[in-house]
Amino acid sequence: MLSFPTSSTMAVSLLERLNCNSHFSILSISIFNLPLPTPIFFLTCTCALCYMYVEMSETPKDVRKWFLKEVEKLWPLAGGSLSLRKNRCIRPNCPVCRSGEGHPAYALHTHSQGRQTSLYVPDELVGKVEVAVQNRKKLQELLVEAGRRYVNALKFQRKRR
């Protein structure tokens, strides 16, 4: 019968070791043969170790396949940022402009070839453009993950030769 310690500090320290993505994490758990605090924690560690093993045995081709599958899920994409601006109109006696408030309009701001550009976004399209800008942020996070996995795959491939 397994007895589980009541202290959660051991669980936290083991999780911290698992998140460092190194071979030492796996070795430290097996060397110290530490009891696991709860059955749920055991499943979490098992899943994390399986994930680390699969990730560490990926080939560059596997990483490319994974990346393309993940990018496909991120459509629509839009670079830049969406902002609300208050513009003056061309009417000389406009009460809104005279009050200093201005007419609200959304714009997508981007940089291209060293130049900043703004593109008007109609009110009914703002929601869709916001989703596209958020997906661009997710794409950047995905690129970082892909780079990390690609380097690990190259290291694994080199080690196997």
Could you explain how this protein is built, in words?
The protein has 161 residues and is α+β, with helices and mostly antiparallel strands. 56% of the residues lie in helices and 15% in strands. The protein has a domain at 1-56. The protein has six helices and three strands; from the N terminus they run ααααβαββα. Helix 4 (60-72) packs antiparallel against helix 6.
Strands, helices and their partners?
Layout: H1 9-18, H2 23-32, H3 39-56, H4 60-72, E1 81-87, H5 95-98, E2 103-112, E3 115-121, H6 126-160
Antiparallel strand pairs: 1-2, 2-3
Helix pairs in contact: 4-6
Q: Which keywords apply here?
A:
disordered N terminus; 6 helices; rod-shaped; 161 residues; alpha+beta; single chain; three-stranded antiparallel beta sheet
Q: Evaluate the radius of gyration.
A: 26 Å
What is the average per-residue confidence, as pLDDT, rounded to a whole number?
75
Gap from first CA to last CA: 44 Å
Shape: rod-shaped
Order of helices and strands: HHHHEHEEH
Helical content, roughly? 55-70%
Largest sheet: 3 strands, antiparallel
Number of helices: 6
Structural class by secondary-structure content: alpha+beta
With strands numbered from the N-terminus, the spatial order across the biggest sheet is 1-2-3
Number of strands: 3
What amount of the residues lies in strands?
5-15%
The low-confidence runs, each spanning 5 or more residues with pLDDT under 50, are: 1-31, 47-54
